[in-house]
Every structure is written in C-alpha cells, then in structure tokens.
Write a structure and sequence with these properties.
The chain has helices at residues 39-46, 77-87, 95-108, 126-135, 141-147, 162-166, 178-201, 209-214; strands at 4-11, 33-35, 53-61, 67-69, 117-121, 155-159, 168-176. With 230 residues, it is of the alpha+beta class. The protein is globular and about 50 Å long.
C-alpha cells in the first residue's frame, strides 16, 4: 500500500471532520472510522432503497501508522472471524456456538486497539450471515473462505487511533444516487447468495468449528485458509 492513499467513506451524510471516539462499537473491528479504497463500493455502502448517499473522499498519510493487515499471508481466516465475533453481535443460540466464540477469541483474536489502522474484509449483510453459520457449525472453514470471496465486496480500511485521524484530510464528496447504486448493491448481494447456496449443496469433508475445537487446531494448521482477500 502506498504511503499516501485516497480513501472513501460511504454515508447518508457529508462527513468533513470525522471525530475520534464516535460511531458504533459493535462494528466489524470495533469503534473506528470505516473506509474503502474503492469509490464505487463506498457509493454502494452509502445508499438505501429510499435515499441517495455520499462518497466522502479523503487523503491519508499512512507512513508512520502502525497497520494491522488481516488479509496478509501471516494471518488466517480464523484471525479475521475471531476479531469479528469479539466485536459484532452474533446470534448465539446453541452451546456449540458459545464454545466456538470463546475458542476463537481465546486462540485467534488480535487486539485491534493496539493499531492505528486496520485492513480487513467487510462482513456486510449476507457475508455476516456466512460467518454466523460457521460459528454455529453450519459450514466448514473452507466453505467460509470461499463464501467470503463471493460478490467481491472488497477490503475496508478502518482508522482506530487519534494519530490516524490526525493524518486524514477531507477532499470533498460525490453523490451516490440510489437509483444506480442500490441496484448494484442488491445485485452484488443476490449473486453472492445464489453462489453461497451452490456451495452449500456441495458435499464437504472440510473442517468445521467443532473439529477445530476438538482438535485444538491453531493458525499453523495447513488446512486453515490464509489471505482471504483477492
């Protein structure tokens, strides 16, 4: 990643001055300012079926930032999902799911608050459901890795520290029209769901979360997929 980058924040409003400490603490990587390198994706994230949105544009000087890239080869998909289940609100309906959440956090989670900037996959809409299915022993870790590639939702970049916020400069915005970008957003989600159902129809002898727990499996296991982003 270049040291000085252009990033976009999709929103229903213009955000000229992002404020450190504001936002929802139950987002994917906790409290932070969520952005993307893709203006088109930011526009999709900004709209709903009822309203237009805005793709706020910023430049970020990342030269001296402490960056955690969860999509680098040193991390696995289990690191990503452990961070996710630690921060997002999951439907914990069974003892299996409770054990799974505890095991993932204890063995694979990373302290994202120790970093200025986080790069990782975005668990949006159906993608969050895929992660929840894995937690409830419904799909294997291999199926989860494939599912997270569906729809090509892309990476998100999350500013976590005051220092990161201080290196952000607002550059303007573009309007995201709902008539165009909500259609694109829905088509992306619908396509991902259709392909996900095809994955479920396939016979799987992969590793499920119950197998991972019983086997005491860690990050160095050769069957745990790495670098989920392409």
């Amino acid at each position: 990643m270049d040291k000085r980058i252009t990033i976009y924040h999709g929103s229903e409003k213009i955000v000229e001055q992002p404020i450190f400490g504001e936002g929802k603490k139950n987002n994917d990587f906790g409290l932070g300012f969520y952005c993307t390198l893709s203006e088109e994706l930011a526009k999709e994230w900004a709209v709903s079926s009822l309203r237009d949105g805005f793709a706020n544009r910023y430049t970020l000087d990342s030269e001296y930032l402490n960056i955690l890239n969860l999509n680098s080869p040193e991390y696995t998909i289990l690191n990503w999902i452990a961070v996710l289940v630690e921060h997002r609100l999951f439907s914990i309906k069974t003892p299996m799911a409770r054990r799974a959440k505890r095991y993932l956090i204890e063995n694979f989670s990373i302290n994202v608050n120790a970093y200025d900037l986080i790069i990782g996959y975005r668990a949006d809409d159906s993608y969050f459901d895929y992660a929840e299915s894995f937690l409830n022993n419904g799909i294997s870790v291999e199926q989860l890795a494939r599912a997270m590639q569906l729809g090509k939702l892309g990476e998100q970049i999350v500013l976590k520290s005051k220092f990161a916020f201080s290196n952000l400069k607002y550059e303007g915005f573009d309007i995201a029209e709902k008539n165009q970008y909500y259609v694109l957003r829905k088509a992306r989600d619908d396509e991902a769901n259709q392909l996900y159902f095809e994955i479920l129809e396939e016979e799987s002898d992969g590793l499920y979360i119950q197998d991972i727990i019983r086997g005491g499996i860690q990050n160095d296991h050769p069957r745990i997929p790495r670098n989920i982003f392409e």
